[in-house]
Amino acid sequence: MKKITIAIDGYSSTGKSTVAKQLADYLGYVYVDSGAMYRAVTLYAMQRGIISKEHFDAQKLIASLPSIDLRFEKKSAWNKAHIYLNGKDVENEIRNLEVSEFVSPIATIHEVRVKLVAQQQKMGLEKGVVMDGRDIGTVVFPKAELKIFMNASANERAQRRYKELLDRGEVVEFKNVLKNIEDRDHIDTTREDSPLVKAADAIEIDNSEMNLDDQFHTVLQLAKDRIAGRV
Ligand code: CDP
């Protein structure tokens, strides 16, 4: 069967990665969480004191880029691939609120994006890939056969992320989670390089009122149509 490229972009905590993973599993495609790559670079910068609440040494980060090695590895066929930063599994660590607070400034750096986009494009060379992020349909795979743009209200997204963080055992306040989502929306949509924007040919899905099942079946139908060349 013909393999296609599926790009899923959208605001933070819109459930992109959930639907992308479901879709990849169903279709037997590779799922790539591009946000995990920006988060892993952020963790590297935090660990080396390159970024903190007080300062951000962008030049030092740019100079360090050749020493940042990112890989995805699957622990088992049905699990999500984990991201490895210089050989260490950091899948869990990159999800905390502190990384979320620094990731958007890191993602504005052109040289960071050049490095990560090149790696992402390599992973998609053979198609059969579902990738989620902010610039997948606009920059990474502008020719993707299916582009989805996901949205939901900021309050709904913050509720979802708050619950996720609590479930992981993090001690966080709702107002800080909401603020982080609003701050990231702002930085991600206004940055100069590859801002978050809906590609002209993307299909927008607002899932504020949708459950996971409805959302999956909506996207799956779109994917099946594209694979069959119906639309
Ligand atoms: O999961 P969540 O929606 O919170 O975000 P993510 O997909 O893990 O991405 C974290 C951050 O990385 C975003 O807020 C962007 O600043 C950046 N990012 C990006 O610039 N480009 C991408 N393709 C993916 C993420």
TrEMBL record:
<dbReference type="InterPro" id="IPR011994">
    <property type="entry name" value="Cytidylate_kinase_dom"/>
</dbReference>
<feature type="domain" description="Cytidylate kinase">
    <location>
        <begin position="6"/>
        <end position="224"/>
    </location>
</feature>
<comment type="similarity">
    <text>Belongs to the cytidylate kinase family. Type 1 subfamily.</text>
</comment>
<keyword id="KW-0418">Kinase</keyword>
<keyword id="KW-0963">Cytoplasm</keyword>
<keyword id="KW-0067">ATP-binding</keyword>
<dbReference type="GO" id="GO:0006220">
    <property type="term" value="P:pyrimidine nucleotide metabolic process"/>
</dbReference>
<dbReference type="Pfam" id="PF02224">
    <property type="entry name" value="Cytidylate_kin"/>
</dbReference>
<dbReference type="InterPro" id="IPR027417">
    <property type="entry name" value="P-loop_NTPase"/>
</dbReference>
<keyword id="KW-0547">Nucleotide-binding</keyword>
<dbReference type="GO" id="GO:0036431">
    <property type="term" value="F:dCMP kinase activity"/>
</dbReference>
<feature type="binding site">
    <location>
        <begin position="10"/>
        <end position="18"/>
    </location>
    <ligand>
        <name>ATP</name>
    </ligand>
</feature>
<dbReference type="GO" id="GO:0005829">
    <property type="term" value="C:cytosol"/>
</dbReference>
<dbReference type="GO" id="GO:0005524">
    <property type="term" value="F:ATP binding"/>
</dbReference>
<dbReference type="GO" id="GO:0015949">
    <property type="term" value="P:nucleobase-containing small molecule interconversion"/>
</dbReference>
<dbReference type="InterPro" id="IPR003136">
    <property type="entry name" value="Cytidylate_kin"/>
</dbReference>
<dbReference type="GO" id="GO:0036430">
    <property type="term" value="F:CMP kinase activity"/>
</dbReference>
<keyword id="KW-0808">Transferase</keyword>
<protein>
    <recommendedName>
        <fullName>Cytidylate kinase</fullName>
        <ecNumber>2.7.4.25</ecNumber>
    </recommendedName>
</protein>
